[in-house]
């Protein structure tokens, strides 16, 4: 479908067209809907690309973090968003996520506190709709050696194998590890299983001379630190 003469962005003043506005005033001058309009490229018979972008944002109450969690099928439920446009939107959001992760790698190559760990793990885990368990491996100076995904599960849980976690620690000659997993439900409170697993890993770490610094639970852009809460 194509935009009608009344709704076509081509009929707008040059300063108001997203692409031209970006060239003239810079990318920061564009609203989220206008950025989406550039990705979407064309609107429908009844709506401009910007209007369509606004409807995409309305699907998640203008929350870009929530938008990043939508599947291709969910995006395609919006009238005017076909497979190609859904793929373009998802790809752009994934690039943004990866950029944030690269920035976190540079900024937090040394992790000393829960805030540092959260800033590093958030780009990885914030948008996931299933639980994943990750571990950061650090040297004696708390400098990051490597980060590994240990397991991937369902909406309500995943399994973390202590043998796998500590094998990586030994292989990497890590002195400290930080545990992290997400709760897609949005509930930050640790389950009894979370607490038992943490204690099991702390105990195993002492035997192997690998310090378990913290265990973070991430949900909806926030986190709970076992260390901060006195749970570790």
Brief synopsis:
With 232 residues, the protein is an alpha+beta fold.
Q: Would you kindly provide a written description of the structure presented here, covering whatever features stand out?
A:
The chain has helices spanning 18-25, 32-40, 49-58, 64-67, 72-75, 83-107, 114-125, 162-171, 192-208; strands at residues 132-138, 144-152, 176-182, 211-219, 222-225. It has 9 helices and 5 strands; from the N terminus they run αααααααββαβαββ. It has a 5-stranded mixed sheet with strand order 2-1-3-4-5, sandwiched between helices. It has 2 domains: 9-99, no CATH class; 110-225, Cytidine Deaminase, domain 2 (3-Layer(aba) Sandwich). α2 (32-40) crosses α3 (49-58) and α6 runs antiparallel to α7 (114-125). With 232 residues, it is an alpha+beta fold.
Features:
232 residues; alpha+beta; Cytidine Deaminase, domain 2; 2 domains; 5-stranded mixed β-sheet
- CATH topology term of the largest domain: Cytidine Deaminase, domain 2
Structural class, from helix and strand content?
alpha+beta
CATH class of the largest domain: Alpha Beta
User: What is the fourth-level CATH superfamily of the largest domain?
Assistant: Cytidine Deaminase, domain 2
Number of DSSP strand runs? 5
Overall radius of gyration:
22 Å
Q: What does the largest sheet look like? A: 5 strands, mixed
The CATH architecture term of the largest domain is: 3-Layer(aba) Sandwich
| Cα shape | elongated
Our measurement of the CA-to-CA distance between the termini, rounded to an integer number of angstroms, reads: 58 Å
Portion of residues in beta strands equals 15-25%
| Sheet with the most strands: spatial strand order | 2-1-3-4-5
Order of helices and strands: HHHHHHHEEHEHEE
Work out the count of structural domains: 2
Question: How many helices does DSSP assign?
Answer: 9
Average residue pLDDT = 88
Q: Which stretches are low in confidence, meaning pLDDT under 50 for 5 or more residues running?
A: 1-6
Q: State the helical fraction.
A: 40-55%
